[in-house]
Amino acid sequence: MIGYSLLFVVLLAFAQAQTLNETSGLVSSEPGLWRQGRRRSVLADSCTTNSGTTGTCLTRFKCMRQSGTVNGYCGTYGVCCETNLQVGASTRQKRTIIKNPGSFVTDLITYTIEAMSSNVQQLRIDFEQFQLPQPILTDGVLECQDYFEAANYKLCGVNDGQHLYLPFNAAAGVEQVTLTFAVPSRASGTIWRLIVTQLEGPPVGSKRRSSTTAGFGASTNSLQDLRDIFATHHADYELLAPAGCEQYYTELSGTIRSFNYRSSTLGTSNYMPDLSYNICIKSAPSASMIEYTFSKFSMSVQDGTAEGYDEFCHATVHTAGRQEDYLMIPQGILAKNMAYQPTYYCGSNDNLLVYAYPPYLLHFSSDDLTLDPDVETGFIMTYRLRNSLL
To answer: Which pLDDT belongs to residue 209?
Structure first.
C-alpha cells in the first residue's frame, strides 16, 4: 500500500510539473525579451573536444581557474575545456568531468560533489562512457563484482549513453553527494567518463514569472527582479526533472533502454535485480499522447508464457517468492488490441507497440532474484509524441 501511495505521489508531482512547464512560459514559450534575459542553458554551454568527447565552452581564463585542460575551441572566443576531477577529490563546479584513472592503485575510488549554491536541487549524471564487467550469477542471485554506486543505485555492465538524476537538495541540508566506483577485479576493459552537472532551481519562496510584463513591471523591487532574472538557476529550469524521476527525456522523440541492456550480438547482459526507478518524458503543448515502439522487450513472467500483462507481472497482494519484474506504463493502450489497456508489462515481446496518455511516465521494477538470465535482459524502444492515434 505504501508503494502505491509513493507512486501516486510521483504521478501527481509529474503531472503538476508538466502542467507548469506548459503554462508558465518559462520552459518552451517565453516571450522574446524574457528569453534574451535568461542565461544560456547548461546544454548550450557544452562543446565537442578535439578528442570527440564532451567538454564545457568557457573562456580560457575560466578554464585555467577551474584547473581544466583546453582541448579545442568553441563559440567566438571560447575554448572547449575539460575539467577532470581527480580520484578522491571534491569539487563545487557546476559541471565536472569524471573519467577513470590510467591505472588502478586501489579497489575503491570515490569522488565528492559539493553543492555550488543553496539553489542546487538535483544532480544529473550523464554516462558518456560506462563499461564495467558484467554481473555474476550465483545461486539465482545476480551481483556486481565491480560497480558504480551513488545514493541508492548500484550499476555495472555497459551503460554508455545512459543518464541518472539524483536529488541534491542543498537548501534542506544535503551539501554533498559521493560517487563511488568499486573495481576489485581491476579488469583491463574498465572505462568510465561521466559528465556530472549540478542543476539549480528557484530560490525558496520565489515565484516563476509567467510573462515579460510580470517579470519586469509587476514588482516594486526592480533591482531584485533583475538579479533573479539574470541568475544562473534560470538556465537549469528546462533540465530539472519532475520530482521522483530518475531519468528524464526532453526531446519529442528518442530512444530509451534499460540499464545494462545491449544487443545479443554483443554478448549476454541482464538488468540488475532489486532495481526500481521512474523514466519520465517531457510533454509538449502540441501532443496529446505518446507512442512506445519496443524492438526488444524481455522480462521475467510468472507463468512462463511468452508475454504477460497485469496480474502475470505484478500481484495485487504481495506474495513472498513470486516473480515481480515488470515495466509499468500508466494509461497505456495495447496497439494490437486497443480494447486491452494493461498497466504492467512483462514476458518476451520483441514487437510491442503501446500508446499512452499523459503524464508520460514509465516505472521499471525488478525483484531480488534472477531465475532465468536468458529472459531477464531488459528492453530497448523508441518513443515519439503524437497529437492523435491516426
So the answer is: 41
Please report the sign of the dihedral spanned by the C-alpha atoms of residue 36, residue 38, residue 42, residue 47. positive
Q: Which residue has the higher pLDDT, 143 or 15?
A: 143
Q: Where are the alpha helices (DSSP H) in the chain?
A: 2-24, 32-37, 60-65, 212-217, 222-229
Own/partner contacts of 106-111, CB < 8 Å, gap of 24 or more, are: 107/182, 107/183, 107/184, 107/186, 108/180, 108/181, 108/182, 108/183, 109/180, 109/181, 109/182, 109/183, 110/178, 110/179, 110/180, 110/181, 111/85, 111/87, 111/178, 111/179, 111/180
∠ CA 294-300-305, rounded to 5°: 85
β-strands 276-281, 361-365: how paired? antiparallel
Q: Could you tell me the pTM of the whole model? A: 0.80
Cα 241 from Cα 244, distance rounded (Å)? 8
Burial of 214-247, coded b for 16+ CB within 10 Å and e otherwise, reads ebbeeeeeeeebeebbebebbbbbbbbbbbbbbb
Q: What is the mean pLDDT of residues 299-311?
A: 81
Q: What is the rounded CA–CA span in Å between residue 284 and residue 289? A: 10
Closest CA to 206 of 197, 198, 195, 215: 215
C-alpha cell at 390: 491516426
Task: Name the grid cell of 159.
Answer: 551503460
- Tell me the C-alpha distance between 161 and 125, whole Å: 10
Q: How far apart, in whole angstroms, are the C-alpha atoms of residue 351 and residue 295?
A: 6
Non-local CB neighbours of 366 within 8 Å, separated by 6+ positions:
271, 272, 273, 274, 275, 276, 299, 324, 325, 376
Does position 20 have pLDDT exceeding 50, yes or no? no
Give the Cα separation of 113 and 71 in Å (integer).
23
Q: How far apart are the first and last CA of the chain?
A: 38
DSSP string, 273-334: SS-EEEEEE---TT-SEEEEEEEEEEE--TT--SEEEGGGTS-SS--TT----EEE-TTEEE
Please give the single-letter amino acid code of residue 306: A
Q: Please say whether the beta carbons of 10 and 243 come within 8 A.
A: yes
Cell 568499486, residue located: 182
Phi, psi of 59 (to 5 degrees): -70, 160
Angle at 165 between CA 72 and CA 207, to 5 degrees: 95
Using the predicted structure, report yes or no on whether residue 159 has a pLDDT greater than 90. Answer: yes
